[in-house]
Please model this.
Amino acid sequence: MNLKVLKEYEEGKDKVFVLRDIVEIRIPRKKYEELLKKFSKEHIVSFSEDKRVVNRITRRELVFVTRESGIPLIGHSAFGIIDRGTNLLQVRCMTGCNLNCIFCSVDEGKESKTRKTDFIVDPDYMIEVLRKFVEFKGDNVEVHLDGQGEPALYPYLTYFVEKLKDLKVETVSMQTNGTVLSEKIIDKLEGNMTRINLSISALSEEKAKILHGKNYPLKHVLNIAETIANSKIDLLIAPVWVPDYNDDEIPKIIEFALEIGAGKKFPPLGIQKYIPYRFGRKLKKSMSFKEFYEKLSKLEKEYGIKLILRPEDFNMEKRPKYPNPFKKGDIERGKIVSEGRMVGEKLVVARGRSVAVYTKKKVGEFVEFEVVSAKDNIIVGVEK
Ligand code: SF4
Model:
């Protein structure tokens, strides 16, 4: 742990260290003073068993996924690598979001009712594992940073993207709400990042605040959009169309994207349909896919641009999937290594995979579980 990037202070009974404004490490003051007689500050922050690590934004417990933690980077939908059988690898470095959008498919942000733990992956560990996946996939690989939360909150983002150069991937892209990006960060990403998918779902302050919360910095996000468009990084504006909320905003967003020069090599817009997911936030109304594509087709004619996108527009193609040791119905046993991402869930390690298991057992115990889902190497189990 590099102490140069740590701020420290005392609060109540705790000694608090803050890493890059997002990771909060709390150690009881008395314990800290005791340990300081024997160990260096760096050692205490890294290895003290009495510390509590918290995501400063969501206030949830934050699990540091490192090589030493023994937590695999495949198997879980919240962190690590997701391979859906194409040349695109979804890479999830951190969970947690600074917004609380009313349509959020993963119920993220401080207001979340379903998520109870956040995860952050050590960047060198991620690179090490990702290298194997990239080699397995072959040439023309896209690494896409996304996740259950805001990928730009990852405190190692620019370091990680710089390191991706060694892996010789064709395309590096990321999903972001843009709120924590700055000119300085865009400058650092330039040259290493191919495309940014920026979500902008309204251009009017009033609608934007309804969709994303009252502190949503719309002007800042629009400036960021222009900064990206003026850089070497490709910009794709990705609104979520939420019926009855932003129907009138969609044409305005199309005009804005075209005006600022989004879409150099890739399409300028990737309009998404609001979908009420099982563990996401639910709104009263959603469009059918038929209606959605009819509306997009009408707008395509009006603006003379492509809005109905296909995997080929992003040079995506089918590739063999990384081997999956599990199938639905398997009975397995594994060790509980941390609290789980969702309420009622624990993180279990079994057969080289991180598995989300619904169980009441405690961290450190072993649990026998039945695999209820194993699609795309994302393994979910229920205690037997
Ligand atoms: S920005 Fe994305 S992850 Fe964050 S709350 Fe909104 S929809 Fe969810």
Summary: The chain has a mean pLDDT of 96. Residues 331-383 form a domain with the OB fold (Dihydrolipoamide Acetyltransferase, E2P) fold (CATH 2.40.50.230).
